[in-house]
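Please fill in the sequence for the structure shown.

STRUCTURE ENCODING:
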């Protein structure tokens, strides 16, 4: 198998350095939207061009295996071209989400990624530092930026299922950043991956039975930013698990129980602090599934994928645009 080596610069992509510097100063967060297929990517670009927002396009290891690395490189180049065609040359970063080895990070960097995450959060502390440093050295030699992670998020993280969160220790975060030289740091303050972020017993209920999750640990975020005022912070597991989509899925043959996410007002607050990227994958999955289920249930005779995927894509674009405007605050900042 021959894979052509290419730098992200040849694809028209950007690393995160400038984006985060501006986000930190401007008090907003860049969207880290995950994608696996063309319709998701089209929706992200359409929404970010329309709202004039910079964007980090995220690919997990699983997404890269699903979509194929050569296809993805051309899709990323296509995304840059599509934004241009829409008349908005917004900054676009192609980022490896939850990379778990030096070899994998190298392979992404060599095939057009402008940013990589090395997620050593489940490793012993010194081992996380040692591998992070190697990834950073390789990446920085090629002007690629690196996100690292400290603290464990509950939920599924690249097939590792953590039952409970281990919050990030702010002093460790300061030590880790100094010793690795990472460009951004993902921390654990109570978010988690997937559509079931909290167990019902961790929540309170309103009179009408709606579950209210426990608040994020803003005290930890404050301590981290006091110790590391210039460090761009990343929040993973930050989908809001929008109830309208969960209802639509369940009303059309799905079965999602006790799905609950992070309230938007808390993400807005985090975005105004030193959180410079907010990762959202599950909300995109839920919106897409909801619209596909509803469309197929309402029109049982259709079988052209464009009919249900097209509707899902339009809804996704609306959702991302609203998030950029109302939650992340990144709208209007593409050309700062
Ligand atoms: O953080 C995990 C992302 O949601 C990616 O999930 O590994 O199923 O693609 P995935
Ligand atoms: P969600 O599952 O909350 O969308 O989190 C996505 C994520 O953190 C990707 O890295
Ligand atoms: Zn994540």
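FILLED IN BY: designer on duty
SEQUENCE:
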């Amino acid at each position: 198998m021959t894979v052509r080596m290419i730098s992200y610069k040849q694809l028209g992509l950007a690393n995160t350095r400038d984006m985060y510097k501006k986000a930190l100063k401007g008090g907003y967060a860049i969207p880290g939207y995950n994608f696996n297929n063309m319709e998701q990517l089209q929706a992200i670009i359409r929404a970010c061009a329309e709202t004039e927002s910079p964007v980090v396009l995220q690919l997990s290891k699983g997404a890269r295996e699903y979509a194929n690395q050569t296809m993805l490189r051309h899709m990323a180049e296509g995304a840059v071209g599509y934004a241009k065609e829409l008349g908005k040359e917004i900054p676009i970063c192609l980022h490896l989400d939850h990379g778990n080895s030096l070899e994998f990070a190298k392979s992404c960097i060599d095939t057009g990624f402008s940013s990589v995450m090395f997620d050593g959060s489940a490793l012993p502390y010194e081992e996380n530092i040692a591998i992070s440093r190697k990834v950073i050295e390789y990446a920085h030699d090629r002007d690629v930026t690196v996100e690292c992670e400290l603290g464990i998020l509950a939920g599924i993280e690249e097939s590792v299922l953590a039952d409970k969160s281990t919050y990030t220790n702010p002093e460790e975060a300061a030590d880790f950043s100094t010793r690795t030289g990472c460009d951004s740091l993902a921390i654990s303050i109570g978010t988690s991956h997937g559509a079931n972020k909290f167990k019902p017993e961790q929540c309170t209920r309103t009179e009408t039975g709606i579950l209210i999750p426990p608040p994020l640990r803003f005290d930890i975020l404050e301590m981290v930013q006091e110790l590391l005022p210039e460090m761009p912070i990343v929040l993973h597991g930050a989908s809001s698990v929008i109830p309208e989509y969960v209802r639509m899925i369940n009303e059309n043959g799905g079965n999602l129980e006790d799905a609950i996410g992070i309230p938007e007002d808390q993400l807005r607050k985090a975005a105004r602090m030193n959180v410079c990227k907010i990762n959202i994958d599950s909300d995109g999955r839920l919106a897409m599934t909801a619209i596909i289920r509803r469309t197929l249930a309402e029109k049982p005779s259709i079988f052209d994928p464009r009919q249900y995927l097209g509707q899902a894509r339009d809804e996704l674009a609306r959702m991302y645009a609203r998030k950029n405007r109302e939650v992340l605050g990144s709208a209007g900042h593409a050309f700062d």
